[in-house]
Structure formats: C-alpha cells, structure tokens
Design goal:
It is an enzyme of class 2 (transferase). This protein is an all-alpha fold. It has one domain. The protein contains ten helices and no strands. Helix 1 (about 1-15) runs antiparallel to helix 4, helix 3 packs antiparallel against helix 4 and helix 7 runs antiparallel to helix 8.
Length: about 190
Amino acid sequence: MFWLLVPLAYLLGSLSFAILLSRLSGGPDPRASGSGNPGATNMLRVAGKKLAILTLLGDLLKGLLPVLIASLLGLSIQQQAWIGLAAVIGHLYPLYFRFKGGKGVATAAGMLLGLYPPAALLALAAWALTFILTRTSSLASLIATPLTLPLLAWQQPAALLPMCVLTGLIVWRHRGNLRDLFAGRERHF
C-alpha cells in the first residue's frame, strides 16, 4: 500500500486550490498577481478572505488526508510521514501546473496534524505568535516549521527524517523571502 499511496498523495498534492478557486471565481491567477505564489497568503492579497480561507482548508486537507488514510491502513509513522511529504512535494511541484507550485506550509501543517497533533499545535502557536509580532507570514512559516523538529525527535523519532526533508524544502521554497527579509523588503500585512 505504501508504494501506491506515495504517488496518489503526490497527485492529490498537485491540486492547486488557489489556482482552481481563482478560475472558478473568475479572479486573477495568483501566480500572476501579488507575490506570484499560489497559496493562502497570496490569495488573501489578491482574492480576499473567503477564497484565502478555502485555499487554506484545501491545502491543509491535501496533507492531512493521505496521512490519515495511511494510518487507517496500519502503515508505520515513518511511512505516513513519507506519504505526507509526497503530498507536500505535489504542492511544491504540481504535475498539473507545470511543476510551479506554492511554498507548502499549509499542506505541511495538514501532514503534521495527521502525524502528531501536538507538533502541529506547536507550529500553529509559533506561527501565530511570530505573525502577530511581525505581520510577516514568511517569517512565521520559517520559524514554525523547524521548531517542530525537537519535539518530533523526542516523541515521534520515526517521523524525524521525512520532517527534516520537509523543513529543508520549505526553507528552500522561501529563499526569495529570506533574501527580502535580510534586505528589509519583505511584504507585511
């Protein structure tokens, strides 16, 4: 089942809710507006709260559902984590949209929620606190994701390697944001 669920999770992750919702609503393509990122934060900028919330929920479910299915099928935590990572990679590099996807934060949050809810709550709390203090979504994401690693190393060590890969991918996808943060040009809300 593991080898079947990995490609299915990738294909599910490749669905871009930001792009699909923009097309359905007749709104602008999020890849051509705002930050150019097809994710919930940019949808808030270019399409408003309703579509941003729907995008967030859709992206979150893309990470959560494959992990829950793997859990129900009795796969190990490590296998669940690799399956969840496949969904995140689908979001980052979607087959259906020429491999140009989002930053993966909401999909990663869904994956983490399915794997180990206390780590997801830690990430959410860190993200929210950072965002409230700085009004910068990218900085909040860059702080929240790595903070889960020590907790996972302690409580769910089997998930640590896939989560380290995930953290590296999220930092990589935020490299432009990191340059802007260091240069003082990053967008704030």
